[in-house]
Design brief:
alpha/beta, Rossmann fold, Dihydrodipicolinate Reductase, domain 2, 2 domains, nine-stranded mixed sheet, six-stranded parallel sheet, about 35% helix, GFO_IDH_MocA-like_dom, oxidoreductase, Gfo/Idh/MocA-like_OxRdtase_N
């Protein structure tokens, strides 16, 4: 019989109800014990929708529930630090939405709290758990596209008319770098297997949207002359793409961050022509929660929480570069 991780859901955001909660229910290793919101009416409605026995009108009640092993935190970015630390103190394992914090100092404090409490902490970059990522890494390692030279990543969408959106609240960790720029930034660190040396970012800060960065474009310098060229935006035409460039070829990855079952293909360009690879399809959210449970139950390799601190260092440096309009070294 498969051991089940008993989840508590801390908040009823759309990412929870639309993606993560269904994934837990479809997973081999998870079950949802309770859901909480700041009001019992909302959490009760979500609990009824998903057939969950317990609904709480406060996060404190959820953390006090001894039938919960782990919590998923989809709260706005500025609340991550407080509730990750409080969950750790309550002895709960934690899957926290990306980006994990407002800055690297907060992230380091959260990691320490979880290490001190002996609980597992993970940042919810679901795309890293899609089987396609491992297949891309295999192609890079095989040398088929030669030595790596550069990665180009794009992630944009247009939701600018919804000015009440929490992504447009500066004090809450709003802006395109926090929301979606973090994806190509994390992908480059993962695929290069290295940490950046410097960044130069230009951004459009919008007074209509609490002066968050509604569009950002940048160059991230990695060791050995490698680079990431990226752009991200919440006030631009919808698009996603990842290009991995080598000396002898290139890998083109459509839908690099949201792919599931039917849209996991990618294309390898070399002197021999273009080869389509129908990568293994999967729900990355389900893979994420199963991988998380494996880390809790067996210690199986998962992304170390310290990785989240390094990721936050890159995000905050990109934002600082955009505000100062200058290149910033990370060495």
């Amino acid at each position: 019989m498969v051991q089940k991780l008993r989840w508590g859901i801390m908040g009823c955001a759309q990412i929870a109800t639309g993606s993560v909660m269904p994934a837990i229910m479809d997973s081999e290793t998870g079950m949802i014990t309770a859901v909480a919101s700041r009001g019992l009416e909302k959490s009760s409605a979500v609990a009824a929708e998903f057939g969950i026995d317990k609904a709480y009108g406060s996060y404190e009640e959820l953390l006090a529930d001894k039938d919960i092993d782990a919590v998923y935190i989809p709260l706005p970015n500025h609340l991550h630090r407080e509730w990750v630390i409080r969950a750790a103190e309550a002895g709960k394992h934690i899957l926290c939405e990306k980006p994990i914090a407002m800055n690297s100092e907060e992230a380091a404090e959260m990691v320490k709290a979880c290490n001190d409490a002996g609980v597992h902490l993970a940042e919810a970059y679901m795309y890293r758990h899609h089987p396609r990522i491992a297949e891309l890494q295999e192609i890079i390692a095989s040398g088929e596209i030669g030595e790596l030279r550069s990665i180009r990543g794009t992630f944009t969408y247009n939701d600018a008319t919804d000015t009440s959106n929490i992504r447009f609240k500066s004090a809450w960790g709003g802006g395109s770098l926090y929301d979606i720029g973090c994806y190509p930034l994390s992908a480059a660190r993962l695929l290069f297997g290295a940490e950046p040396e410097a960044v130069t970012v230009h951004a459009m800060f919008s007074p209509e949207h609490d002066n968050v960065d509604m569009m950002a474009s940048g160059l991230v310098e990695f060791p050995k002359g490698l680079s990431l060229i990226f752009d991200c935006g919440m006030w631009a035409y919808n698009r996603q793409l990842l290009e991995i460039l080598g000396t002898d070829g290139m890998v083109e990855v459509p839908m690099p961050f949201n792919a599931r079952d039917e849209d996991a293909e990618f294309f390898v360009h070399t002197g021999e022509g273009v080869r389509r690879v129908d990568a293994t399809g999967a729900n990355p959210y389900t893979r994420e929660v199963d991988d998380f449970a494996a880390a809790v139950f067996t210690g199986k390799k998962f992304f170390a929480p310290e990785d989240a601190v390094l990721g936050m260092q890159l995000i905050e440096t990109c934002l600082a570069s955009a505000k100062k309009r200058e290149r910033i070294s990370m060495l």
